[in-house]
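pasting for the record
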Amino acid sequence: MAITFVGGYAASDGGSGNTTDPATMVLPTHQSGDVGYLFAGHTISGTSYSAFVAVSGWTSLGTVEWTAGSDGQVELWRRVFTSSSETNPVVNTDVSGRKSASVLVFRGVDNTTPEDVTVVGANQSNLTNSTNGAITPTTNNGGLVLFQYHLGAASSQLATLGAPTTPTGLTLLSSGSGSLVAGANHRDLAAAYKLDYGTASTITPTAWTHTVVGSPSNEDEAETGAFTIALRPATATAKPHYYYAQL
C-alpha cells in the first residue's frame, strides 16, 4: 500500500515574548489507521530548563536538548489514529519561553511498526546550513520525513533568520519563522517529506539552507535539533486463493 500525505499544520507563538500559552494544532480531515507526527521546538533565554509536558494520547519518540546559550529542546511524538474524529493535540511547556510546532498526518503507514528507522539528530551549531542525520531504512518504498527546529541567533548576534530552502528531493510542509524577541532568538521550524524513497539504502539528506540577514559574530548559539524518520508502508492484504477439487 502506497503512503500518502493527508495534510499538516504548523504554527509559532509569533515571538511576542516568553509565554506558557499552549500551542494547539489543527488536525486535517483524517480516518482511523492514519498516523500523525507532532514536532515541537522550544527555547528560553537564561538558566531555566526548557521541557515539554507529555501530550495526551501521543507517544514520544525522543528529544534533543541543549543548554549552551539559550536553553532549548525539541521533541517528536506519534499517534496511530483510532477514529476519524481525533482530538487536536496541545503542546505545553513547564517553563515560559517561545515555541513552535507542526503536525503531519500520513496514510498507508504500518500501524504496528510505523517507523522503519528513527534518527534523532544531535544538536549542532550551524547558522546557515543545518542538516538532518543520515538514515538507513530496511524496507523498500517507504516514506522519508525530516523535522528541524533552528534557532538562528543569540542576543549578541544581530542576524535575522529566513525560511529555509528544502533539502533536495523533498516537499516542504511549511515554516513558521519567529520574530526578533528582545534582541534574541530568531528561529524557524520546518518539516519536509518524500512519500517513496525507492529501494532501501542509506539516505543522506542535503542541508537546509537558511537565509541570514546581518552580521552574526559567531555560530556558537545557532542551535538546531532534528529528527529523521523512515516510514514503513502498510502491507496490502493478500487476496484469498480458492482451490476446487475435480470430481
